[in-house]
Design brief:
- By secondary structure, the chain is of the alpha+beta class.
- The chain folds into two domains: 118 residues; 216 residues, Aminoglycoside 3'-phosphotransferase, Chain: A, domain 2 (Alpha-Beta Complex).
- The protein contains eleven helices and eleven strands.
- Strands 1, 2, 3, 4, 5, 6 and 7 form a seven-stranded mixed sheet that branches. Strands 8-11 form a two-stranded antiparallel ribbon.
- A hairpin with a 5-residue loop joins strand 5 and strand 6.
- It is globular and about 70 Å long.
- About 1% of the residues have low confidence.
C-alpha cells in the first residue's frame, strides 16, 4: 500500500470521518449495518464481523491525541498491549485515506487522514457484565478468568518502586479525588466524600506499612489497567480486552489492587460472590496472601477514582444525561464506603 501521512492542514474534521464510517458501503466487507458507539476518547463502529476504533483528536492530563502521528502510535500501542490477553482479536491498524477525487476510503491507497484499530467483533452476551446482569455467573468461569490473569501477572516483569513513594502516591491521589469530588457543580453529598477520604487517610496512617511491603516485595507489575466486567469475555479460553494503553504509570499496579477493582465493579453490579472466588484462585496460584484489610483499602481507593471519572462527565457542556453520571458517582462512593467498613 502506497499510503502516506497527511498534513494536518488538509485533514477532514472528525464529523466528516464519523459520517463516512457510519455507512456500510465504507467497509471492504460490505456489512449489512454499522452500529456506531461514542465514548469520551473514541468512536467505535461495529460491523457484522469486526469493530473499528477511531481515536478522537483530544487532549487530557494523560495524553495528547490532537496530532495524527500521536493517534497512529497510540493505535499501534493498543494493538501491541492487548494481544497477550486477547489473541486473534486485535487484527491491526487500518488507514482512512482521501483519494484523488477527494473521497474518503478505508484501507486503500491515498493520503492518510486517520488510523483505525481493526478488531474481531466479540458477542456482547459473552461478557462478564452480561452474565452478571442475567444472573448467569458460574464460579467455574470466574476461576478461569482468574487463572488467565494470574498467568498474565506471572509473566510480567516486577517493577521497582520505592516503598515510601508507593504509599505516598495513594495519599496524594486520595486528596486529589476528594478535592475533585467536592466541586460545587457536581452537587455530590459532602458527607460521603468526607467519610471516604477520611477512611482512606486513616488506613494510610495506621497500615501504611502494608502498602510499603507490596512495593518492597516487588509485587507491582505492568497490569491491565482498566479491568472491568464489560472488558472480560467468558468461555473456555476467556478473553480480556481494552487494556489501558495511553499511560504506563496507570498500568503499573499491584495485581491485588487490580483484582480488588474488578471485585468492586462486580459488587456494584450485584455480584459480590465474584470477589472471593477471584482471590481464592489468586492465593492458590501465587505465593501471595494479601490481607483482607489491604483488599478493602484498594476497593475504597478504586471507588473514589471511579467516582471522580463518573463526575467528570458533568464537566462536558454537551453531557446528555447529567443525572446518570451524578448517580453513578454516588454509587461508587457508596461502594467505597461499604469497603471502608472493613477498615475499622
Amino acid at each position: 500500500m502506497r499510503s502516506r501521512q497527511s498534513a494536518p492542514s488538509i485533514e477532514p474534521p472528525i464529523e466528516a470521518k464519523v459520517a463516512f464510517l457510519r455507512r456500510p458501503e465504507a467497509y471492504p466487507e460490505r456489512p449489512s449495518r454499522v452500529e456506531p458507539i461514542e465514548t469520551h476518547m473514541s468512536w467505535v463502529f461495529l460491523t457484522d464481523r469486526y469493530a473499528y476504533k477511531l481515536k478522537k483528536p483530544v487532549r487530557t492530563a494523560h495524553f495528547d491525541f490532537r496530532d495524527l502521528s500521536a493517534r497512529r502510535f497510540n493505535c499501534l500501542e493498543e494493538v501491541r498491549l492487548n494481544r497477550p490477553l486477547a489473541p486473534k482479536v486485535y487484527l491491526g491498524i487500518v488507514p482512512l485515506t482521501i483519494g484523488e477525487a477527494g473521497d474518503l476510503r478505508l484501507g486503500q491507497d491515498g493520503l492518510v487522514v486517520e488510523w483505525l484499530i481493526k478488531m474481531r467483533r466479540l458477542p456482547a452476551e459473552r461478557t462478564l457484565e452480561h452474565a452478571i446482569r442475567s444472573h448467569a455467573v458460574a464460579a467455574a468461569d470466574i476461576r478461569k478468568v482468574a487463572q488467565v490473569l494470574c498467568a498474565f501477572y506471572g509473566r510480567s516483569v516486577p517493577l521497582s518502586i520505592h516503598p515510601t513513594q508507593y504509599r505516598v502516591s495513594f495519599a496524594r491521589r486520595i486528596r486529589e479525588a476528594e478535592s475533585n469530588l467536592r466541586k460545587a457543580a457536581y452537587a455530590l453529598p459532602a458527607s460521603m466524600i468526607a467519610d471516604a477520604a477520611q477512611a482512606g487517610s486513616a488506613f494510610l496512617e495506621r497500615h501504611g506499612p502494608l502498602l510499603e511491603a507490596r512495593a518492597r516485595e516487588r509485587r507491582i507489575v505492568e497490569a491491565h489497567g482498566d479491568l472491568r466486567p464489560e472488558h472480560i469475555y467468558l468461555g473456555q479460553d476467556p478473553l480480556i480486552v481494552d487494556r489501558l494503553e495511553f499511560s504506563f504509570s496507570l498500568r503499573a499496579l499491584d495485581p491485588v489492587d487490580e483484582l480488588a477493582y474488578l471485585a468492586l465493579e462486580c459488587d456494584r453490579l450485584g455480584a459480590p460472590q465474584i470477589g472471593p472466588i477471584l482471590f481464592e484462585t489468586y492465593r492458590a496460584m501465587t505465593d501471595d496472601e494479601p490481607a483482607p484489610i489491604l483488599i478493602a483499602f484498594y476497593k475504597l481507593f478504586r471507588a473514589m477514582v471511579r467516582a471522580v471519572l463518573a463526575a467528570a462527565h458533568l464537566d462536558d457542556p454537551g453531557v446528555r444525561n447529567p443525572e446518570k453520571w451524578r448517580g453513578r458517582a454516588i454509587d461508587y462512593l457508596r461502594a467505597g464506603l461499604r469497603a471502608a467498613e472493613r477498615l475499622r
